[in-house]
Amino acid sequence: DKAQQAMRPDWITQPPQQSGMAYGVGSMEIYGDQAAAVKRAAELARVDLVSQLKVTVTGDFSSSTTETSGTGRASEVQRSVTNYARSQVPEAELDEVVQSDSYVDGTYAYVLVELNRSQAAARLRRDVDSIDEQIMDIAAQSRGGEPLQQLTPLLPAVKLFAQRERLSERLALVSMNRQGAVMSAELRALQRDIYDRIGALRVSVVAQDSDSEAMRGPMIEALTDQGMKIQNGGSYDLEFQITADQTSKQQSGNYYAFLDCRVTIVDNQGRALSSFSQQAKGVSGLKKVALQKAVQSAGSMMAAELAATLVDDLH
Question: Which letter does DSSP use for residue 288 in this model?
C-alpha cells in the first residue's frame, strides 16, 4: 500500500552514488523464513554489485599466457595447461564488500551492499605482490639434468600465474583506473620459458598390445597435432603407454567410431605419473573420417590429461 511504499528507503530503486564506491541491491521474496530471505538478498546484492562494475569494463583483461617459439601461437598442450590451471583457481573474492543497509516489508527482503574500491584495489595489489614473490622464489631455484627434471621445479608457478591472472582481472574490475596488475619483464620471461619447456618435452608413444599397435600411427599424428614432440626411439621425457580398443556402428546414414583408450603416462625414470580410461567418439558419413575424428578426440583427451599431470602431480 501507499504507506508502505513511502517507508521504503530510496536505495531500493535508486542506489547511492559516491566517488570511489560501488553499490549493489538485492531483493528476495519471503517464504516464511525472513533471515533466509535477507541472506539470499545479500548474495544477490553482491552479484548485482559485481555486474554493475562489469558493465563499465570494456575489453578482456586476461593476458595471453602462452606463446610458442617460432609460430607465436600456443600449441594445444600449452593451451590445455593454461585452461586447466585456470579451472583449478576460483575467481578472486571481493572480501571488502559489506552490507550497509537492509529493509524488510511483509513480502520482500531488500539488502544494500557497498564496496570501497580503492581499499579493495590496494588489497588485491598486495595479494598480487605476494604471488609475484612466490613465483620469483621458484625462478631462483637451481635446475639441472634432463629437460623434464629442469621443468619440474618450475611447474608450481603455473598455478600461481593462474591465481595472479584471476587477481589481476578483479583488480581491473575494481580499481578506479580500470587497470589490472602489469607483469614485469622477468615474470613474462619466466612464464614464456615454462611454456617453451612444456612444448619441448619429448614424448614416446608405446602400444601395449597388437590391436593398439594398429592405432599407434594415427595416435602419433593426433598427439603431434596437439603440439607434442614425438620421439621415435632414443631419449624421451614422457612415455604414453596406450591400449586402444576400436569399435564402430552405422546408424541413420552415419558411422560412429568409438575408441576405448587406457593410457598411462610414465616419466623417463619409469615412474607412473597418471593413468586414465576414457572413450573417444567420432561421427561422420564416412567410416574412415569417423575413426579419424575419434582418434583426434583421444589426442585432445591425452593433452588434457598431460596438462593436469603437469599442473597437479609433477612437483
Answer: H
